[in-house]
Design brief:
The chain has a seven-stranded mixed beta sheet with strand order 3-2-1-4-5-7-6. It has a single domain (about 5-255), classed as Vaccinia Virus protein VP39 (Rossmann fold, 3-Layer(aba) Sandwich). The chain is α/β, with parallel strands linked by helices. The chain is globular and about 55 Å long. The chain starts with 6 loop residues before the first helix and ends in an 8-residue tail after the last strand. Helices cover about 40% and strands about 25% of the residues. The structure holds S-adenosylmethionine.
Length: about 260
């Protein structure tokens, strides 16, 4: 499968996309001299910020996208390095922080993924994850509806993107069961003010739609995108500025002696 990530498209709403990163980072406690991993690090610009915040000796950014990683070299050095790799195969031990901003929504099977990530942490290790939860907004539901239409379904071989996230409560319980002594789990609404509804198309082109783009020829993707645009704009109110509420799940936990799953 090709790599459909386009760093420029993703960066179009940079300030809006960075705020949840900063909110997640604020939950992470510094680990001077420690080891930190940033899963799905993208271009690595925020991996550097993470590294400075934690004061770690080493921070490794992991991503499978060559296009995203191609930009990471400028953020490497002074304790930060980048590796191409798949989160699904990620294995380590004794880490102080496993951090992941806006990436784990791409990985299926959270009931096995999260315990696997927790197992890479050392004593007192911290897990910090932010994932979009906007699956019920038309920007997402219409994308999947269009994928199910006959012409696109044929081109996609019947593929429709699944949604691996569970309820916020499920993650809170899981963290406790995995032996995290402390935790902070919250669902937050980020209200974005866009110039008009057509900007929602640009927004999802830089994220969700990359998955369909990945699986289609350029012509088939253009046809899919045209139908998506038409259907979505028919559904959204034509208001300027356009309010785009975006739900996100922020979760943080720290392992430790008080956890019921420990011992
Ligand atoms: C929305 S971007 C977020 C990038 C960065 N964390 C940020 O906050 O700007 C999601 C990133 O996750 C990466 N990704 C998705 N699934 C992955 C997987 N299974 N293994 C490694 N990287 C993955 C993508 O390549 C992409 O760079």
């Amino acid at each position: 499968m090709s790599d459909a990530w386009q760093p420029e498209q993703y960066a179009r709403f940079r300030a809006e996309r960075e705020q949840p990163f900063h909110d997640l980072l604020a939950l992470v406690e510094p680990v001077p001299g420690g080891r930190v991993v940033d899963l799905g690090c993208g271009t690595g610009v925020l991996t550097r910020v993470l590294h400075e915040h934690t004061g770690a000796a080493e921070t490794v950014g992991v991503d499978r996208s060559e296009a995203m990683l191609a930009q990471s070299a400028q953020h490497a050095g002074r304790g930060v390095r980048f590796e191409q790799g798949d989160i699904e195969k990620f294995a380590e031990s004794g880490l102080d922080v496993v951090f992941s901003n806006a990436a784990l929504q791409w990985v299926d099977g959270h009931e096995t993924l999260f315990p696997r990530l927790a197992a890479t942490l050392g004593e007192d290790g911290q897990l910090a994850v932010q994932m979009p939860m906007n699956h019920d907004h038309p920007s997402h539901t219409v994308a999947h509806e269009v994928a199910r239409e006959r012409r696109h379904a044929e081109a996609l071989g019947g593929y429709v993107r699944g949604y691996p996230l569970r309820d916020a409560e499920w993650y809170a319980e899981l963290l406790a069961r995995m032996g995290f002594a402390e935790q902070h789990v919250r669902l937050q609404v980020y209200l974005h003010q866009l110039t008009g509804p057509e900007e929602v198309v640009e927004w999802v082109k830089g994220s969700l739609l990359t998955d369909y783009r990945n699986r289609l020829s350029p012509e088939d993707y253009e046809a899919y995108l045209a139908d998506f645009r038409e259907r979505l704009l028919a559904e959204l109110p034509d208001e300027r500025p356009f309010l785009y509420p975006f739900k996100r799940l922020l979760l943080w936990g720290r392992k430790g002696a008080a956890g019921p799953g420990n011992g």
